[in-house]
Amino acid sequence: MDLQLFSEITYWIVLTFSIIGVLLSLFYIFIFFRIPKLHKSPGDIYFGMSIGELIIMLHYLTDSIVQLKSDMKNYSTSSLCYINLVAFTFSVLLIYSYTIQLYMHMVIRLIFTLQAKKINKWQGHLVTWIISFFYALISLVSFQESYLCGVTLSSTAPFTFIILLLSFFVVAITAKQYIKQQFECHQTSKLKKQGASFVYYITKLFIAQSIIMTSFILFAMAAYLLNQINKIPEKCSPKDQGWLAILSFFAQISAVTYPIVIPIIRYSDPFVLKHIRKYLFQHRQPLDTSDISLIVQSFHQSSIQQKKISLDGLSQSLIEQNTLQLEQQIFKNQHSSSDYLRSHTASSNGRPRQLTIQNKLEDPFIHQLTNQLRSEIIKRIMALILLQEQDKIKSINQNQNFKKIRRYQANQDYNEQYVFTVNQIFLKQNFENHFQSQNKKFKMISYAPVIFNILTKQDFDQLDIANCLDLETNQDQIRECAQTTGGKSGEFFFFNYNNKVLLKTISMTELQTLIEIIEQYFWHCTNNPNTLIAKILGIYTFEGFEIGRISMILMKNIAKINKMAITRNFDLKGSSHDREVIKSTKSSGELNSQQQELIVSNHIVLKDLDFLKLEKQINISSEFSTVIYEQLEIDTLFLKSLGFMDYSLCLILVDWLSFYKSQLIDEIQDEELINKIINQKITRLQHCYPSLIQKGFYYHIGIIDYLQKYNLQKITEKYAKKFMKLDSNLDTSSQNPYEYRKRFLIFMKKIL
Hints:
One of its GO terms (cellular component) is plasma membrane. GO terms for molecular function: 1-phosphatidylinositol-4-phosphate 5-kinase activity; ATP binding. InterPro entries: PInositol-4-P-4/5-kinase_core, PInositol-4/5-P-5/4-kinase. This is PIPK domain-containing protein. Helix 16 (449-458) crosses helix 19 (508-527) and helix 23 crosses helix 24 (671-683). The chain folds into three domains: 3-280, Up-down Bundle (Rhopdopsin 7-helix transmembrane proteins); 354-556, Phosphatidylinositol Phosphate Kinase II Beta; 563-751, 2-Layer Sandwich (Phosphatidylinositol Phosphate Kinase Iibeta, Chain: A, domain 2). The termini are far apart. It has helices at 3-34, 43-68, 72-76, 79-111, 121-145, 157-186, 189-229, 238-266, 270-280, 289-302, 313-321, 339-345, 353-360, 365-393, 424-430, 449-458, 465-468, 475-482, 508-527, 593-602, 608-614, 622-641, 656-664, 671-683, 712-725, 737-751, and strands at residues 402-407, 417-423, 441-447, 493-495, 501-506, 536-545, 548-556, 566-572, 605-606, 644-645, 648-655, 688-690, 697-704, 708-709. 58% of the residues lie in helices and 11% in strands. The protein is α+β, with helices and mostly antiparallel strands. The chain contains 26 helices and 14 strands. Mean pLDDT is 74; it is low at 285-359.
């Protein structure tokens, strides 16, 4: 064998492959910056992989050029050689890390379906880059031990790659099977075609990665072992030199094949392929008018009453007394046209909600599958709570697919637990149009149901939980909630169709805390019917779901207000540090039109310093101020006794007059009648106080987020912030319950 000719052919092949790989990597990097929608995961992960592939191909491009110029001797001892090798190791680790991140992203997104908190993906990118870079620097030592400037002959690289390969198989196979299982369980007609394409894509990607990575490891390991037998390459026999050249050839071909084959397969990802086609051919493909008309038609069907108000019986009787003939549609199907539903049928700029849903359909498939899974879980949770409500009326224990166990601790209602075990077949029988017939069992533990039933009946609004959580009337809310992109605090929220109640996830620590204080909580609410504390109407734990154990509370929504009526929304703690949202606000309290539009359209929650600049004071009568402050003293004393802190006063300024007038003006011309309707509706709202300086404006008030105890985490947070700011007197939000209450009441006294 002519080793020189063989080597020359090898490097020409490597050079050609390297150029192709560089072009493929540069193409994705280019379209990543040109198509913002690719910034969503996994588009950003593909970008990181493309960077790694670009670096590795530049390494082989440089190496092959040097070899073809027969300048290896000088190159092997140059600093460029070691820079190139460090870059190679860095790129390999980078590609591997992003490959693992790709599979983990899919699984984690599904597992944490009800985690509303957005994970900062840029932190993941930063960690990936730092680890890869430092490992590459450490590997520089092993490179210097090698006579030739080649990774395949490194003393540690093959063993490292074997470990990485095995971990890849574990993660990739687990992720692939989990995704396939979830898709088969939750596929719908909408997702079926996309899901099949995605599963096929994942399978294809996994097979290609497995073959190429395994080939590279095997050939690199073989070259390493052969080199170990012949420590000094100059003393190798011609036969050994030939085998070493062949093994190195296949190792390099495997290495340069990966950044070509894998990107080509990645371009077949339905999410990426769709946006690339759209970008490349956007001027050639006319819009499908049938799709547009379908969207518009769907919008009109779902928002027939967008401009109308859902009137209660009291307001209707006022209209009837004045013999006004209103369009009959106003009084039809009150549930489907609630204030909360209308606030979601159109975005702030007037575009149909269906256009947002259309954009969601362009999301990566794994996002759509997560939304579908979230929708299923929400429906199951609501169905299980509804079954408990049905069980209060009639016994359904005779059904073999439904079982209720009553547990007592110390034989008291406060410690009572009802355990409902339900088969999904039973859910299908009771809620025909909402569940598939699957042989799955779910469990719900309801804590102190008798106690919370009493609290619900004692409540000012006397809510009908069965009506509030009815699956049929909450279909739009379930669909939209399933598409939520998350919240800041990490909890998941579901607001029902009439915006009167909400479901919220809680941690195991919060669950245990609530169980311990049920008795005190019950008596506080019973003895203080006008408490400002947002009332809890149920505590539940759910088991048997795909995402594991979930604990949730059912709460009365103090902000049961159409978002279109809200002027400003404040979260007040009495603290000054980091309690400002609009930092450019002038001390005069004036907002420019752009800021005002931003606040209203995006429903931005403002904080203490914003309030002092914009409002300065809650402008209500002195009588109301006294009543509110006295109740705040009682409520905060109760929270202090339980060790709670970090609670907030939710203060919402609502322009009810303008809102109702805009809804009724087309149907009612009599302004006096409109005012009567508004007054009747306002009197039925608890903790709603009229503004003295703005006609038609009202303040809605309540205490929220009150389950946080002053623990080690909060103590650490307090002193960490003081240390970072080098200010021992820094007024942080985190304080012990006594100091927190004291500061909170001082601030409330100031603004009331």
